[in-house]
Amino acid sequence: MPEAPVTDLLQAKRQSDRTYAERYVRQFKTDAIAQIVAPGRKTSRLLVSRLQHDSPDHGLTEPMDLDAVFSVLIQLRRQDRRELYLDGKLVHRGSFPERTVSIVNHWQRPTANLLSAFDTVIFTVSQAALNEAAEDQGAPPVQELVCEVEGCFDDTVWHLAQSLLPALERPEEVGSMYAEGVLLASTTYFAHAFGGMRPPPDARHRLSPAQIERAIDLMQGRLGEDISLSMLAAEMDLSPRHFARAFRQTTGETPDRWLRRQRVERAKAMMRETALSVSQIATSCGFASPAHFSRVFASAVGVSPNVWRTQILN
Question: Can you give the pTM of this predicted structure?
């Protein structure tokens, strides 16, 4: 039986990711939803969502499905009035200030009565993802994530959420490597901070010359593709987290930053040496759109691609 075309496989994966993502926000009525899905270390999936509701008329959320999943929520704005129910019992009534972090266990069938506007980032963390994080660090399994029902403050979670906001504004432009790296790091942090994960002392790792040469060859050969951290790590027989850390310690850059810089350099060469349009060059160099290319190029070089090309050719 012939294999399915690559485009069909990609469309099937995107549809599967959309279905997975929608499953964890369908309990809410929102004015705006943005979501990013990334692969976990092995079979799990990682998800972050931003939910916004600008009026105080949401009311009670639908019960969540019983599932081995935790939701880590952080409030981007003050939520004046809310009630949280676990297994049908009221466990908290009050406000959640901006920056408040809270965690709910889906096995407890959480529901919330949302009586004021909200703007919330939700990290959906499956038990499978926690197990993979613990295995990756040589630590015992993490049984649960725990936080006070009235919430807590955690600067790291706040900064993780803030770092993802630009990506959540344009999720279609987010590369697999970036999304995977940030969400893997988030899951590991949650396991540490809220699950008590304590791995053995960590040795400093670097890639061997052969490994770094292989990784660079792979990325340079596929600059026009949405290459993932998992694929590169598998080539080195490492976990994505170990590969990303070792790559940074070896080169001084994260894989995502290195790849972005190489794409900009290739784009420069193509603008000097070919008559291709900026739009064609953007596609050839792996950017999600001409607008995405312009933003990344201007951030790196200081001027837009068209201005740079005019200056160089003149």
Answer: 0.76
Q: What is the DSSP letter of 261?
A: H
Q: Do 166 and 271 fall within a single domain?
A: no
Residues 79 and 214 placed together within one structural domain of the fold: no
Residue 204 belongs to some domain of the structure: no
User: For residues 86 and 106, what is the distance between their CA atoms, to the nearest angstrom?
Assistant: 9
- Collapse the DSSP code of 7 into the 3-class scheme (helix H, G, I; strand E, B; otherwise coil) and give the result: helix
Q: Do 119 and 169 reside in the same domain of the chain?
A: yes
The distance in angstroms from the start CA to the end CA of the chain is 56
Task: Judge whether 202 lies within some domain.
Answer: no
How many angstroms separate the CA atoms of 60 and 85, rounded? 10
CA distance 307 to 302: 10
Exposed, middle or buried by CB within 10 Å (0-12, 13-18, 19+), for 307?
Answer: middle
Measured distance CA(287)–CA(208) in Å, rounded:
30
pLDDT tens, the chain, 314 aa long: 455 565 777 788 889 989 999 999 999 999 999 999 999 888 999 999 999 999 998 999 988 888 899 999 999 999 999 999 999 999 999 999 999 999 999 999 999 999 999 999 999 999 999 999 988 887 888 999 999 888 999 999 999 999 999 999 998 888 888 888 899 999 999 999 999 998 665 545 778 788 888 999 999 999 988 888 888 988 888 888 889 888 988 888 899 999 999 999 999 999 999 999 999 999 999 998 999 999 999 999 999 999 999 988 87
d(CA 63, CA 33): 19
3-state DSSP call for residue 238? coil
Q: How many domains does the chain have?
A: 3
Closest CA to 188 of 226, 242, 237: 242
Give the closest residue to 39 by CA, choosing from 126, 153, 103: 126
Write the DSSP symbol of residue 269: H
Task: For residue 297, give its domain range.
Answer: 265-313
For residue 213, what are its two tokens? Answer: 């040469």
